Please model this.
Amino acid sequence: MRTALLIDFGSTYTKLTAVDLDKPKVLGSAQAFTTAATDLSLGLKEAMASLEIALGVTDFDMKLACSSAAGGLNMVACGLVPGLTSKAA
Model:
């Protein structure tokens, strides 16, 4: 079974949906308050913990993220090689 974790960082909630790519079907979902004012990863970790309780897994073959937050989110990319850093970001 190939799985994907779909992540949406919204203005209010960080939402996760786990899907089976082979069936295709939704395996489960979770959400937590978005923590953009402090550290975006805190809300993600909280939602991941909820998803792990529901599904028993945290390892996914693919992770895709987007932001539906109004006004967008600020981010910084740091690296040694500009071409690779911008591609990874």
About this structure: DSSP finds two helices and four strands in the chain. Residues 3-88 form a domain with the Nucleotidyltransferase; domain 5 fold (CATH 3.30.420.40).
